[in-house]
Amino acid sequence: MRSRGFLLRLAVKNLTRYGRRTVITALAIAAGVGIYIAMDSAIAGFAGESDRLYAGYETGDVAVTAPGYWEERQRFPLDRLVADPQAVIDTLRADGLSATPRTAFSGELVVRYDPFPEDGSLQAMFYGIDMDRDADVFGLLGSIEQGRAPDAGEDGLLIGRSLADRLGAEVGFPVTVTTRTRDGFHQLMDLEITGIFQTPNPVINRRAMYMPIGLVDTVLEMQGAVTHVHTVLPGNLPADADYRRVERLLADVDGVEVLSFEVMNQEMAEIMEIEDNALQIILFLLGIIAVVGISNTMLMAVLEREREIGMMRAVGVRNSEIRRMFFYEAGAIGLAGSVVGIALGSVLVWLLVNIGLDYGFLLDGVDMDFRWDGVLVGVWNVPTMGYAAVGASLVAGLASMVPVRRILKKTVTATLRDDH
Amino acid sequence: MKLHRIALRNVFRNGRRSVLSLTAVAVAAMSITLLFSVLAGIQDDVRHNSWNFDSGEVRIRHGMYDEYEYLNPVQYMVDDHESLVTALLDMDEVEAVSPRVSIAGVTIQNSREIASFGMGFDLERERDFQDLSSLVASGRLPEAGRNEAIVGFRLARELGIEIGDSFTVLTQTRARASNAFTLDVVGLADFPLGALSSSAYILPLDRAQHFVRSQGGVTELLVKGGGRDTEGLQAAIEERFATLGRDELNATPWTVASGGYAYLQMAGPIYSMFALVFFVLGSTVIINTTMMTVHERTREIGTLSALGMKGRDLVRLFFTEGAVLGLAGSALGVLIGAAIALVLGRVGIDFGTSMELIDMDISNVLYPAVNAGTLVFVFAYSSVIATAASFLPSRRAAKLSPVDALRG
Amino acid sequence: MITAQGVHKHYVDGETEVHALRGVDLTIDAGEFISIAGPSGSGKSTLLNLIGCLDSADEGEISINGTKVAGQKVAALVELRRQNIGFVFQSFNLIPVLTAYENVAMALSLLGTPDAEIRERVMSLLRDVGLEGMEHRRPSRLSGGQQQRVAVARALIKDPAIVLADEPTANLDSETGEQLLKLMKDMNRSRGTTFVFSTHDQMVMDYADRLCRLHDGEITHDERRSA
Predict the structure, then answer these.
(1) A201: domain range?
(2) What gap in Å lies between CA B403 and CA B209, rounded to an integer?
(3) Which of A356, B81, B364, C54 lies at a CB distance of 3.0 to 4.6 Å from C49, suitable for a disulfide?
(4) Residue B408: predicted pLDDT
């Protein structure tokens, strides 16, 4: 409709009448929008990083285990196994997907005085990995900082930098791992630390150790079985369709369960939901204040222009057109605020993305199960910026409806009267 | 008529607008009150949990134990703790001392290893340190001298045991040899920390000492003072160690020892930033409202100044009006915020089990805490901001010339 | 053609009820140039508001070009005003953020008239009312007389059947007022637009082709003069 253009122009012109007020209101909106964008960026950055590190170093995009293994995974059961991992791997390979087996088990790492600074032991998680294929799926073997990965047949161990520092371990130090075989008998491995890795995933840097899967198979009497087969999917994070593809491929393999990343990442997802809810509450409170601010500003504008509105109505401007005019006016304040808010938010996000907020110094002694190294790095989330801007403008526009309704309820003659 | 009477009447003249600006201030004040209450709740909670289950206000360990903490260095114990406890309790700064033996062990069940964490408590002495009875979900606390334990309810579920059953734990002795011991379950515990409920049990100190062959030693002593001067407490304890010739011991304040304290450090600035944002937004609304008031009553200002009211008085008139709204809004907001916080403080905010992922001493159920100091602070702060915000536009009233104002 | 029959109107001002019109009968033919005169409080503004469909009568009937006002929906009245009636106000009531040109063009813009046509019509009308060269001034840069000419142009731009002017010269000095009246009369002659204005200004009454006097809500005098 052509009249829209006219109403828009009029609305914008009217805004210039109350410079200071418009600026103050817009700035309030800008502050809200900017901070929302920054918070969203930080939370998304945190979640994205966590997902990336979890998939890239621990779960892969899809994991194949024995049915029921996942529920019990924290106890490292050795009676729920993928009996024929090669069949799974071959099937996935045939379809062009990389796959690698891993066997996870718990045990105690025992170290002794000389060369270690002190006698000691600790409960830890160990993984037998395929030295040739693991790098197809995981970033671990590419993160060795010192020393080297053990050869497939070697009695060698890879440990994380954080753990090594805590233990005072160096490459070449001998350690003992005590654990139990598949059938529950005690077993003991004398290993040499061949390499120390430093991944961006603090959880495995602190707690996980890796050795050749052949050694694990022999010592734990696994008879070729493994606990997991991991695979990566094309694309960044696994979409549902890709996961279904793996599930279809393995439909004929008995005794396996296909775990999507969503399933494996559920705990984290729940935490993010709490974060999200907190953000929503804050957003809601910010919204209320902004709405009060906008409707106040618009109420003021409406009251000041009462006669003018009366005149417009007298000459036949429809109520809907007057409502639209004020909607545009308030919406424009919202939009202006959003634009400044996006600029402000972008500066904050830029800082978050390029510099980050380093909480590492506070987290030094804290063991978190978060895959997060203490540096909060934001992400650019352009859709969020768009939604924030559209949302703020719409809310602003709608907030104008209350004061306008108030004046439209009056008769034209009452608004035209000279006594105000 | 006195100026403030006029101002007060004006507040009620335009009810809706006054309500709007009152609401804005109130929402801002309410949000900040809530925010601070939650923060205070977290603070109290983290402190409570750290002090009782993690670090005390000051934690005393063998220096070598601290150094090789991650190696489970059970050989380094605090010896002759009885005389130490007596000496510590003798100090003015010390209110309570709890000697403890920690047992990192595993229970083996159907070829699975279930890790657990035993806490040997001197149950007599612990009464002065904390009220353990609040942990008891069912059954009772263990008694000294008996092979009994109260088990975290989720650990019990995982072990498949109930009151009346027993469980066996394999651990290391002080000489780093293996030892297994069996405990009868006499109670189930619901620890404030979910992580403890799923991994910990409490047993009598004397039995714990026996199981790890501690030769009279304990793993650590947790000390509580008044909480006002943790560093002073630490210094006093170290001084006492020096006079006792116990240089092998290390006293660590909870600000260093506890992971929860680090979390508080992290959360504090973030919360303050939120508070600031709410106030900036709230203030803009007040500024706008007062500007509106001035504008709307331009003609009245003209009349008043034509009648001889001075610019300063006009400023005061509108300023008083803004201040009344600011004060009332702040008071209302603080009251509502405090009321919500009080209700939440009773009911608690349940975070479910997600907090277990963080070793930060935060309980699963958080109880916001309302303290008078915070309320007064938020009220004062929001009143000042709100009042100051009404000053700017009030000045405009004084600048209007009577002629312009009358033409309005 | 406008007819009013037995029109009564009450309104409440504060706490007092005012019986503004007490049975007014009036017929105005197309093309008339009529002045409704009376002291303030006589009900002339009220009568104009009723004729302009801004308000509705409590009793009696008003019809514009055969359309009865009573019983119409609000939206229909707005359309009636939009199509048939132009207003000129005592205090000009121009929109301060719009230029003279834009103030006049507003009504057409809202009707969705093509820009080229708007331009042509507005420019020619502004020329007719003697505002050539001042199209792009905002009201604050126009004199009172010029502002009221803009208002007249605004009222005329849609070629309404009727223009209602409520004390159009009250805020103008007598010379400017006379020029404005002359302008309106010219428009009345050249376009055939009906002009109805209220006034208590003798000069305005002298200009009118027909003079109705209103006193306490009743017509006490109705006199036609030859042009």
Answers:
(1) 62-232
(2) 92
(3) C54
(4) 46
Buried b / exposed e along A157-174 (16+ C-beta atoms within 10 A)? bbbbbbbbebbbbebebe
pTM (predicted TM-score)? 0.70
Q: Using CA atoms, how far apart are residues B370 and B49, in angstroms rounded to an integer?
A: 19
User: For the packed helices A382-399 and A401-408, what is the interaxial angle rounded to 10 degrees?
Assistant: 20
Query: What are φ and ψ of residue C2, in 5° steps?
Result: -115, 130
Number of structural domains (chain A) is: 2
- Residue C98 sits at the chain A interface (C-beta within 8 Å): yes
Closest Cα in chain A, distance from residue B282 (Å): 6
Interface touch C97/A318, C-beta < 8 Å:
no
Q: What is the pLDDT at residue A372?
A: 65
Q: Please tell me the distance from the alpha carbon of residue A242 to that of residue A221, in angstroms, as a whole number.
A: 34
Residues B121 and B97 in one domain: yes
Answer yes or no: is A256 within a domain: no
Q: Is C89 on the interface with A (CB under 8 A)?
A: yes
Note the ipTM here.
0.75
**SS3 of residue A135 by DSSP:** helix
pLDDT band at B407 (very low <50, low <70, confident <90, very high): low
Q: How much is the pLDDT for A251?
A: 83
Contact C83 A413 (CB under 8 A): no
Q: Looking at residue C226, what is its pLDDT?
A: 61
Q: What are the chain A neighbours of C110 within 8 Å (beta carbons)?
A: 3, 6-7, 316-317, 321
Q: pLDDT at position B167, please?
A: 94
How does DSSP assign A132-192, residue by residue?
TTHHHH-SGGGGEEEE-PPPTTS-EEEEEHHHHHHHT--TT-EEEEEEE-TTS-EEEEEEE
* pLDDT tens per residue across span B111-161: 677 889 999 999 988 888 998 888 898 999 999 999 999 999 989 998 999
Query: Which residues of chain A neighbour B111 with C-beta distances below 8 Å?
Result: 77-79, 180, 182-184
- Angstrom distance (rounded) from CA C7 to CA C21: 7
The SS3 call for residue C25 is strand
A24, A366, A369 member nearest B284 (Cβ): A24
Nearest CA in chain A to C156: A315
One-letter amino acid of B109: Q
Q: Where are the beta strands (DSSP E) in A4-141?
A: 62-65, 99-111, 120-129
Instruction: Name the token pair of B8.
Output: 């007060």
For residue range B302-329, list pLDDT tens digits in order.
Answer: 767 766 667 777 777 777 877 888 888 8
The verdict on A34 and A73 lying in the same domain is no
Q: Which of A6, A313, A315 sits opposite C109 (nearest CB)?
A: A6
Interface size, chain A vs chain B, as Cβ–Cβ contacts under 8 Å: 159
pLDDT at A1 > cutoff 70: no
Same domain? For B246 and B99 the reply is: yes
Instruction: Select, from the ranges A53-62, A307-316, B312-321, the one with the highest average predicted confidence (pLDDT).
Output: A53-62
- For residues A69 and A187, state if they share a domain: yes
Same domain, B249 and B304: no
